[in-house]
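Closing statement on the D41 sub-project.
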Amino acid sequence: MSQQNIEPCASREEYLALVATLQRYSHEYYVQDAPSVPDAEYDRLFRQLQATEQSQTEWVVADSPSQRVGGKPLAAFSQVDHRVPMLSLDNAFNDEDLEDFNRRNQERLATNSDLEYGCEPKLDGIAVSLMYHNGVLQQGATRGDGSTGEDITQNVKTIGSIPLRLQGDDFPEILEVRGEIYMPKEGFAHLNQKARDKGEKEFANPRNAAAGSLRQLDSKITASRPLEMCAYSVGFVELGSAPELPEKHTDILYKLRDWGFLINAQMKVAANIKECISYYQHIAEVRDELAYDIDGIVFKVNSSEQQQRLGFVSRAPRWAIAYKFPAQEEVTILQDVEFQVGRTGAITPVARLEPVFVGGVTVSNATLHNRDEVARLGVKVGDTVIVRRAGDVIPQIVSVVEDRRPDNATDITFPEQCPVCDSPVVSKEGEVVARCTGGLICAAQRKEALKHFVSRKAMDVDGLGDKLIDQLVENGLVESMADLFHLELNAVSALERMAEKSAQNLLQALEQAKQTSLPRFLFALGIREVGEATARNLAQHFGNLDALMSANADKLLEVSDVGPIMAEFILGFFADSRNRQEIERLQAAGVQWPDIEVKAADELPMNDLTYVLTGTLEQMSRNEAKAALQELGAKVAGSVSAKTSVLVAGPGAGSKLKKAQDLGVEIIDEDALIALLQQHR
Ligand code: D41
């Protein structure tokens, strides 16, 4: 590609106009999430700015966007005394605490009327102070101990959502803006992925990553980190000729937004404390979908006049409180490690923990994933560990508190024999997973295979849960999938805790499950790597089971989503006579499905179209959407490029949405996607 020639600005006026343009674009990009020009255009103008500043050093202004890039490393941070102390926040841990807070406020204000509150999510980041003189950023500082912090001016200037110059003209002569610098979850995941790729140490969480990024003496490092700042209050103010700030806290924040700051999009006004509690519950529900980590909600008496009357005690204002969510990370003790055998024989180390209340539930198990993860953590039995449970994700061990390791801590050794069937355990070269070689001899693998076979997206046998499968296998009633369809009423109702009626229901559910579809059946077989979407593609492509079973590798590779490794697994599965026999037994037991009419690719309605999915889908899973699109002949890609035909963007869409906008790709929401899919039913 040809690099265009970049001409430096011819005059100071032209240079200043360029500075202003770039400032506007950068605000659109970082704060409004709505860039009006493509990245390439921004980059071009930015290079022109740099070229100009190189040849005309005397023109350079302090708020030039070039000043974000990161200057020379500092030897140490100097100290900054806060002109107005940066207060801390009192905590509330339950609704009563919050109601007490409200009652105290009412008493002090000698009123029975409802008090109005500003409500904001409490971002889990680093509190900072930004000092503006005549609208130009002069200094950035950490909160420190509240009276003295560290000068991190160079570093905050690298953060895109911090304005170097305020917009508008009605801002105070001196204005201190306070806010939280944080790292959005997506950026955090990228950063850690890069660290993993390079074999470097990962950050434990986005907060640590944000703190670590700000603590860099070399601001070039900070510049490379995905940080944002969200403003939450003002500190020192000297109006000069500017009008008074608004009376209400929330209106002050709207003013800050006008001047160019990011404020929290979830911010709301609550008319009374009851509404505060509903707000808390609402945010707790959507918490996982937010693009950033939060650890609670901050409630602030909205009227400045009331705030002043309430004042503060020691280091915290009486008029504000942080209602914390249950902690998502806790320390506990690793008491033991057990090894579970999965459907494909994969052996997973599972941590048995001293029970601990974390993320709102009591946790006594956490996955340790595999050998590599155990090595990465360097964890031993007896260690004090940090467990994390966020949302509905299975609990994880994040790290070891090494200075609490007892003398008798023992290494975790992986078994060489399967803990269930005693077959040898092997790890294939290049694979981190250790597997039991027992296949269907192994009761654990059999149980897991059966659980998968009857699961909702597979054969969908109603009322056949994990516990019942365990019982059926342990009592020798079922060895393989086909055995399920030969169960007899008296044998089932003889099982512990099984009423005759439930046994009848189970047999009826099994009878119903026999009428299935080819995609379901293929998925249910549990072929390694063949998920729901691939099973659909295979069914669509081959139309019937015989055609699939007699396909060679080349034929399999024609199916979208099937690569060489998966093709190998599919061939291997059907080459195994035990699997072929099992399929015959299933069909003999009455399991059946209609064949599918195979359409040539160019007859499919979405042939030639490439879709990308981003953000959260609320009415279907991403896999379901993907499968439905592929069924209509569309390709579903992971990233947006010039080849993308349509981007489906749900709430929380981020960089992909931006890129699609830049490239002028058609963007639709989930409702439009559903309408589109229905059109082709
Ligand atoms: O999101 C936050 N972490 C946040 C922190 C917030 N939304 N509002 C805050 N408001 C205050 C007062 C009421 C004192 C102006 C805060 C903090 N303080 C705060 N952050 C760290 C210490 C105090």
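The longest helix spans residues 12-30. With this model delivered, the sub-project is considered complete and its resources will be redirected to Aim 3.
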